[in-house]
Amino acid sequence: MASDKTLNAKNLAALGADRLAELLMEMVAGDAAAKRLLRLELASRSGGGDVAAEIRKRLAAIAKSRSFVDWHKVRSLAADLDMQRSAILKHVATASPGDAFDLLWRLLELAPSIYERCDDSNGTVGSIFTEALNDLGIMAAQARPNIRMLADRVEAAVFANDYGQFDGVIGLMAPALGDEGLAMLKARFEELAATPAKSKVDDRKVIGISTRGPVYQEDFEARYKARRIQSALTDIADALGDADGYAARYSDEERTNPAIAANIAERLLGAHRPEDAMAALKLAEANYHNGRHWPDWHRVWIDTLDAMGQAEEAQNARRTIFERDLNAEYLRAHLKRLPDFDDEEAETGALTYVRDHADFHRALNFLMDWPAHGLAADLVLARHGELDGDQYWLLTPSAEALEQSHPLAATLILRSMIDFSLDRAKSKRYVHAARHLQTCLYLARRIDAFGEHCDHDAYVAKLKAGHGRKSGFWDA
């Protein structure tokens, strides 16, 4: 039975409301954040309206602030923003979804002024805005805002998205906008796209110099606006399920980019048009083979082959990518589609292929992750001369995983890291190397035969002969 002195809700309640109130006042003295939280709780007694008023007041105060927030104060700012976000959802949303929607939008509109005066290199503040944006999408469905007013807000958000706070806003607002609102937005952005920028020939500000000559601010802003418009139109096409509308946003040259071709083809597949998807992919096929990495293109290519009923070609493509890149995802997909029992034989053959792969460390990494620890140990024993002791991020966990069932292989891995540290005089690694040597001593007791390799005592003697003066290692 818990003591009446144990700190829990029941014992605290026994102190009585008056005493608890006194303690709270003492605790929040000098703590502005705690005071704001208590004010929100007090305001909630009168319903969501009073809480909404408190939140508006706080958001207005944050918007007016101009002081720079150092990195060590960013968490406090993020906590304040999150407190307002949580209060909106907890106290305002249930009583007035419309007010909650409006407050969340106002919170997101604070992003530019906040980012301009704080160091958010660790993304603490950004994560709050991401959550608020997701909350906004949920609240839009409940609030059912006026479609025209919502379209106005979304349009403004597209051009005010300098810090990514409104990324994906069109897709999030699509259910609330409906086909009518999306069509309205589409017409607006198409009109903007068709409207040429007015040139101010007499007053053009140079903001940079390129190989093509001066870079004018006006031209830069025009290109920036055009990209925003194109992005909005592609998002609208996605929201409407309009694959052709999505594709139309890209020029013929852009469609030869494998990443863009894959995006177009994926949408055509979603519209059950595999032949059109393949045609879109083939426009970029030459560029796919130019040596760069285009993972989405090949993934969609294989999905398209499957959709066209070309299962054998799709399987061959999966196997090719696996063998080329040692890609476990494609091997698993290949094996999954094989008949029962055939998959076991194919897996054995594939893992043997990995074991014999020219790139030792990629092969080791694959076999450890699969997992196929027996083959990984065989790889180490057969090709131990290829171990690169500098790759500790791979070798350390590999040795740990092999210790119990394959102590000799684990020992050879550990020795490679010890040798690298001492041969290259990597003094910062001596502590780790010394720990590895202790592990080798432990493993030596479980190794029946070292074969072509020297035993532990001989290995230590060799280290002392070559590195006896490196006290940082021996004294570690």
Topology (elements, then pairings):
Elements: H1 9-13, H2 17-28, H3 32-43, H4 48-64, H5 74-92, H6 97-109, H7 111-115, H8 124-143, H9 147-159, H10 169-194, E1 206-210, E2 213-216, H11 217-240, H12 243-248, H13 258-270, H14 274-282, H15 285-288, H16 295-307, H17 311-325, H18 328-336, H19 342-355, H20 360-369, H21 373-382, H22 392-402, H23 407-423, H24 430-444, H25 456-467, H26 471-474
Antiparallel strand pairs: 1-2
Structure description:
- By secondary structure, the protein is mostly helical.
- Among the domains are: 29-144; 366-476, no CATH class.
- 69% of the residues lie in helices and 2% in strands.
- The protein contains 26 helices and two strands.
- A two-stranded antiparallel ribbon has the order 1-2.
- The model has no long low-confidence stretch (mean pLDDT 90).
Tell me the distance between the termini: 49 Å
Overall geometry: extended
Portion in helices? 55-70%
The side-by-side strand order for the widest beta sheet comes to 1-2
> Which structural category do the helix and sheet elements fall into?
mainly alpha
| Count of extended strands | 2
Major sheet description: 2 strands, antiparallel
